[in-house]
């Protein structure tokens, strides 16, 4: 083979260096300009906001690939989440493949699991960590503008130098991982404002954006947003458990309910209003930190049950499925008020298998298939159910509903975000 301009055919794990036009051919080894984008999110953030941050990072990687090198997104392992409190369950270093279909994610943007990154990279080293932060001075003259600048770190760094001069910190529970360099960057704007920084100012191979939630969506609810969201197909084993449960306890099947699902998300184009849903009311009742602050937009259990009963009557539904993070005491009270409610309660073995994250996904999947759904105000857990129902083709009136607080005056209902195909 002669040298010169070529398209590389290097293909590995779904990502490829198709865009690299020059490469060196030495004996039989092909090199191409693969670069890795890693990221992490503020530790207290939960599973469903993290899913949202993934969309922002996927968008950034698409921009990076359009404008330059062959960037690959490295999926941050799941673990040590505040809400995952089931004891004696291994809930750290969980690969994305346990919760999502990797082939589906890869049909949207090149992604790899962290352990694959370690293997490809030749070790647990990250060249550069950029800790994102706001501007110390806030918005100058009250005017908001997009900008990004290297700045001194505002908060105390969550990384410290070891004896060899490497930076150690929280790398998803991978204790051996270390960074060569950690700096802070003030950023204000959408995810793709990082593109020039990552292409021009930085030339190293692997870059991690910490506190990635600092960056905003490039285009919330636009085509690119929805492409990525649609590619976030839950793992098959979790969907199957949810489907079995629907059939067994809620008399719900895809055929009857017009919720046929395509494994291939690029072909999943259900018409708005085509889904009927199973003969049950789906409820997401968020408790814990949502009630501790005595928020006025979150109902008491009594208030919630009153609403549930009235919806069941209105929509002529005899069954109600309840997804909730209520503690034992509240659950007991809820069972007293609503003895006929159906809940997904995993056995110990199932919990060990699916983990808290998988159980939450099964809850979301079952809520997503209900004839009518009501969720909790500004819960990202509820928002992700809205999106799932939008993908399945439910009418907006059956989806964008939330409980009102007992004394809430203006109880604004959630916004309908239509899919852009
Ligand atoms: N299984 C289950 N877990 C829930 C439910 N509601 C909340 N959780 C847990 O609590 C977490 C809530 O955090 P997050 O995902 O950030 O959603 P948000 O805080 O409601 O916006 C979830 O990720 C779950 O781990 C529920 O209905 N079922
Ligand atoms: Mg949360």
TrEMBL record:
Its EC number is 2.4.1.221. One of its GO terms (molecular function) is peptide-O-fucosyltransferase activity. It catalyses: L-threonyl-[protein] + GDP-beta-L-fucose = 3-O-(alpha-L-fucosyl)-L-threonyl-[protein] + GDP + H(+); L-seryl-[protein] + GDP-beta-L-fucose = 3-O-(alpha-L-fucosyl)-L-seryl-[protein] + GDP + H(+). CDD domains: O-FucT-2. The keyword Protein transport does not apply. GO terms for biological process: fucose metabolic process. It comes from the Eukaryota. Pathway: Protein modification; protein glycosylation. Keywords: Carbohydrate metabolism, Disulfide bond, Endoplasmic reticulum, Fucose metabolism, Glycoprotein, Glycosyltransferase, Golgi apparatus, Signal, Transferase. GO terms for cellular component: endoplasmic reticulum membrane; Golgi apparatus. It is found in: Endoplasmic reticulum; Golgi apparatus. Belongs to the glycosyltransferase 68 family. Catalyzes the reaction that attaches fucose through an O-glycosidic linkage to a conserved serine or threonine residue in the consensus sequence C1-X-X-S/T-C2 of thrombospondin type I repeats (TSRs) where C1 and C2 are the first and second cysteines of the repeat, respectively. O-fucosylates members of several protein families including the ADAMTS, the thrombospondin (TSP) and spondin families. Required for the proper secretion of ADAMTS family members such as ADAMTSL1 and ADAMTS13. PANTHER family: GDP-FUCOSE PROTEIN O-FUCOSYLTRANSFERASE 2. This is GDP-fucose protein O-fucosyltransferase 2. The lineage of its organism: Eukaryota, Metazoa, Chordata, Craniata, Vertebrata.
């Amino acid at each position: 083979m002669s040298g010169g301009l070529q398209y590389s055919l290097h293909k590995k794990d779904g990502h490829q260096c198709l865009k690299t036009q020059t490469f060196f051919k030495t004996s039989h080894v092909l090199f191409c300009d693969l670069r890795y984008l890693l990221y992490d999110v503020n530790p207290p953030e939960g599973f469903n906001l993290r899913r949202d941050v993934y969309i922002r990072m996927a968008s950034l990687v698409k921009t990076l690939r359009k404008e330059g090198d062959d960037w690959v997104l490295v999926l941050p392992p799941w673990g040590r989440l505040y809400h995952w409190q089931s004891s004696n369950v291994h809930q750290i270093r969980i690969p994305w493949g346990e919760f999502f279909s990797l082939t589906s994610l890869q049909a949207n943007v090149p992604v790899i699991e962290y352990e694959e990154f370690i293997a490809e990279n030749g070790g647990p080293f990250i060249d550069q960590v950029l800790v994102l932060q706001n501007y110390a001075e806030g918005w100058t003259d009250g005017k908001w503008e997009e900008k990004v600048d290297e700045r001194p770190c505002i908060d105390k760094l969550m990384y410290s130098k070891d004896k060899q001069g490497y930076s150690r910190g929280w790398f998803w529970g991978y204790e051996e991982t270390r960074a060569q360099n950690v700096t802070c960057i003030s950023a204000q704007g959408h995810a793709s404002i990082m593109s020039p920084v990552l292409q021009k100012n930085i030339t190293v191979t692997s870059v991690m954006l910490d506190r990635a939630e600092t960056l905003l969506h490039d285009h919330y609810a636009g085509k690119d947003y929805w492409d990525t969201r649609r590619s976030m197909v839950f793992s098959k084993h979790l969907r199957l458990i949810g489907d079995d449960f629907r059939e067994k306890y809620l008399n719900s099947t895809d055929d009857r309910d017009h919720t046929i699902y395509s494994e291939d998300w690029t072909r999943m184009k259900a018409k708005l209003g085509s889904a009927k849903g199973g003969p049950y009311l789906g409820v997401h009742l968020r408790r814990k930190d949502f009630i501790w602050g005595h928020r006025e937009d979150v109902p008491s259990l009594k208030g919630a049950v009153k609403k549930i009963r009235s919806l069941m009557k209105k929509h002529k539904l005899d069954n109600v499925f309840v997804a909730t993070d209520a503690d034992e005491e509240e659950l007991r009270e809820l069972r007293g008020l609503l003895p006929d409610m159906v809940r997904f309660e995993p056995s110990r073995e199932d919990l060990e298998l699916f983990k808290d994250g998988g159980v939450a996904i099964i809850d979301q999947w079952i809520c997503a298939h209900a004839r009518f759904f009501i969720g909790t105000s500004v819960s990202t857990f509820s928002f992700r159910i809205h999106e799932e129902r939008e993908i399945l083709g439910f009418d907006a009136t059956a989806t964008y509903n939330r409980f009102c607080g007992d004394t809430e005056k203006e109880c604004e209902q959630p916004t309908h975000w239509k899919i852009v195909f």
